[in-house]
Structure formats: structure tokens, C-alpha cells
Input
Amino acid sequence: MSISDEGSAGARPLAARASQTTPENPWPLRLLAEKMHEYVARCAPTWVEGQIIELNRRARVTYLTLRDVDEEISVPVTLFASETARMQTELERGMRVVARLNPDYWKKTGRLSMVGSGIRQVGLGDMLERIERLRRKLAEEGLFDPSRKRPLPVLPHRVGLITGRESDAEKDVIRNARLRWPGVEFEVREVAVQGVHALSQVTAALAELDADPAVDVVVIARGGGALEDLLPFSEEAMIRAVAAAGTPVVSAIGHEADQPLLDHVADVRASTPTDAGKRIVPDVEEERLRIDQARAATERAIRTFVEREAGGLAQFRSRPVLAHPESMLLAREEETDAARQRAQRALTVALDRGRAQIEHLRSRVVSLSPQRTLNRGYAVVQDEEGNVLREAAGTAPGAAVTVRLAAGSLGAKVEEVRPSDGAEAGDGPEPGEASGAEADGTPPR
Output
């Protein structure tokens, strides 16, 4: 399908699409403007939120510029008198509004503008409701959990400070911190603390200070202001940036009554910038007082310990065993002598008892020995093999026998064997046994 250019002297077919145009067959400018107008007219109206940065009122039309609340993006908006008449409050620069924008392309000048309708101010209640929804969402994720909060260093050597340019908050933090600890150092980042640039600049400064290993703690400080001015410190991007920081963060935004979401995620919340300066460093006078107290307590403890040990030593030295140490040796010497005497007596008694037992056994052995029997006149007769003859039938005439006496022995020859005359063999006295004649001293025959 082609389009004819009826306005030219000789009608010529035109390209149906912009991509089909060529230097030899261009579109008339009016055709591009018409197609742009038709294309933009098909766009649906959109509700947007932004901040008024420019405002120009005319008799029947109000021209304003809306800027994004987070980025440096703005669009011009045209409001007709019928729209502004329905508003209960006058539009002002800096106001945060919600409007329904319908894009419009003006063919004669080639300008794209937005026609606004239904514009209304974002009320305090709307902003608070939005902040509350975000607070509940982040709380469910655990970003406000007290277990995530890190303690501040006892004595930070360098403090990172994010605050406005030449602001009172910066002076309050530095002055009060150095009054308490004069040697503290600051790494200051001056950024926008309200408006469209606040979110990006504060988060960038936080990332820079968090990456610096010399910075021990970061303070984000701002003076008081309206709720709209403090909104950047309740933005989700800033809250997540603080939660992800590895360095402890102190929130010092506004006054005691101001509580942006930054206060909930920060490791320490200071009610004011002045309070932040007092919290991040210890008081040098208090520390000196504590050192003096600790030194005095240590000195008392050492003195008490020395006195107690000295008293104990004096008590030990006053004891007789230490006052006269030789007395302990004398007592042991006496004990040793007594023990030696007891041992000698016990040994003497044991020897006497053993000697008596030996004498007793000796007398018994002597009294029972065959020698004793021989001493009383008896003799022992042995055959040639050395066997003791107990009866006459044990040998034969002509046999050689040995007769053993009490002293010496005799060699003899049996001439005659006389059997027993009726008495049983063995009735006579055994060697060593006394007969009736022996009992009265009669010598044997």
C-alpha cells in the first residue's frame, strides 16, 4: 500500500512505512508529524508520582515540571484550569503529587507534552502507609532483627561521617565527639540529604566508606525536617545498603520524634547528631577516672596480698620448729635412739628364744639318737651287707658280723645261733628304748 503526495505538482506514491523511505522517496514532514500524533494518541493514560520542581501559572493553563523521586528524570506537564480548580490546596514547588498523564504530540511545533488530570498531593497519611508497608516487609525478612546488630568499637580511630554540605549536623557530631575524645579522626562525605539526589549520593558514600579498612564506624547524620525531606532515609534501597554494610552504622536522622526506617536497620540509633557524637567515642575524662580507680583498686589488692603473705610468714617464723630448727632434729634423734633400742631388744629376745628352741630340739635329738642307746651299753650287730640284725635267725653260724659299740666297732664271727626261747621277735627293747634294767641304772648284760 502506498500513499500519494497530493500537495506536490505531480502526485507521486509515498512509502507506507517509515522504514521504507529513501532519499529519493522521502516523506513530507507533515506526514511524519501526523503519524507521530496518531501513534502518541494511542498511548494509554498513566498514573505517576513525582515532585514538582518548576511551576508556571498562566490565565487558563498551568505549566509544571515533574521529576522522579529517585532519579534525575523529569517531564513537562500541562494542567488546564478545570484540573487546578478541583484541587483543595495550591500547587507549590517541592510538592509531591500523583497525576494521570496523557501524552500529546503537538504537530505544529513537534513537541511532546503531558496533559495532566486528577492531580492530587501525596498526603502524609499515604506516605506513612507506604513506609509502614515497607517496614513490615523488611521486618519479615529479618533486616531489623536485633541479633544482626553489631556493637560499636570501644575506641574508633577513624569515623566515617555522611552528612549535608556545611550542615549543623556535621558540626554537632564532630564537636561533641572531639570534646569527649580529642584524638578521634573523621572521614567526612558531604552529600545531598534531601531531594532527588539524596538516595544515590548517601548510598554511594556509604559504599565508599564501608570499603575503607581504616574506617571503624559510619555515622549518617541529618538535622530535623519535614517528613517529605526525610523520605530518602526510608527508601528500600538505602535500608538494604545499610543492612549489607560490613562496618557498624549509626543513624542520627532528625530529632527524637523522627524515626525513619534507617533507625531500625542501623546498628545504633542516635536521637540527634549531638547524641551520635557522644555515642561513637568514650569520654576521655571518664576513662581517666576509671583508669585511676582501677589503678587504686589494683594497688589496694597488691598491698593487701603482700600484708597477708607477710603476716603468714611471720606466723611461720614464730613457730618453734622454725624458731629452733635443731629441736626438730633432737626430737628425731631421740626417736631414732628409742627405735634402735627397741630393735636391739627385740633382736636379743628373738635370738634368746631361738637359742632356747635350738637347745630344746638338740636335747630331744640327742635323747632320741642311737648313739645315746649305745652309750648305755647296747651294741648294734650288722651283717656283711650292713643290715642290722634284729633276730638270731637272720644269720648263720660262721657268718661274719660287725658289732658297733658306743666307741668303735668289732669284727666278729658267729659261732652258734640260738633261736628264741618262746618270746616273739621284736619284744625286746628297740635301740634307743630303755629296758627295766636301764631304767634303774643296771648295765646291760
Remarks:
- Residues 369-410 form one domain.
- Confidence is low (pLDDT under 50) at residues 423-445.
